């Protein structure tokens, strides 16, 4: 897990640099007030949202596992899941999700400003609360395709990456899939909130990556079909609910 943390930290630094460079090139920041507004809108608030997401993610996964370690777990796999091939190459897209997750609050800031980032944080709170309840009431597993004893039989480049992920990621807490949720929640928030002329430009990259990453969770045997089929409508409903409540109040819910 430490390796993933270092990778995420490096990606975060690159993301901040790229975003700052992009925005600075399109904004003339002459006064202190302009510089302050830029820093809060595009850097500090998204970083706060990212920290909130990482803490919530860790608590949702790790805290619930402490309570469900010794109780029976459900298995939601179907014959169709068993028929899907294992495609180690898709581990590239599975790991790519970590970069997308880090970039998400900054992308939302670009698409909708501080209000959309705050709605993202509220949506995350609902997501983590619902996920925690399900993990506790219906603990479930998604057994990995290979056990550590079988790693020596699979020595390809992408096999190694897949094995690394299997070692780093416990097979519990499959439904709902937070891996899918973190990709599709920003998509639906932009869909319901972005009214600018650049809406499609903000949506299309997220949609393309979302499809590839969702496929990777299935073809790397990290999740079942029901995990994906449940999670995407769940985050759509959360994003819709938060948007409607915020719009009714005429302001961001935070």
Keywords:
single chain, 254 residues, mainly alpha
Ordered list of secondary-structure elements with their pairings:
Layout (H helix, E strand, L loop, with lengths): L1 H25 L5 H37 L10 H5 L7 H47 L19 H12 L9 H16 L5 H21 L5 H25 L5
Helix pairs in contact: 1-4, 2-4, 4-6, 4-7, 4-8, 6-7, 6-8
Describe this structure in words.
The mean pLDDT is 86. The protein is mainly α and 254 residues long. Helices cover 74% and strands 0% of the residues. It is built from eight helices and no strands. 34% of the residues are buried. Helix 4 crosses helix 8 and helix 6 runs antiparallel to helix 7. The protein has one domain.
Helix count, DSSP H or I runs of 4 or more residues: 8
Give the N-terminus to C-terminus distance in angstroms.
32 Å
Oligomer: single chain
Radius of gyration: 19 Å
- H/E order of the elements? HHHHHHHH
Provide the residue-averaged pLDDT.
86
Reported for the largest beta sheet, the result is:
none
The total domain count is: 1
Low-confidence stretches: none
Question: So what's the overall shape?
Answer: globular
Report a brief summary of the structure:
The chain is mainly α and 254 residues long. It has one domain.
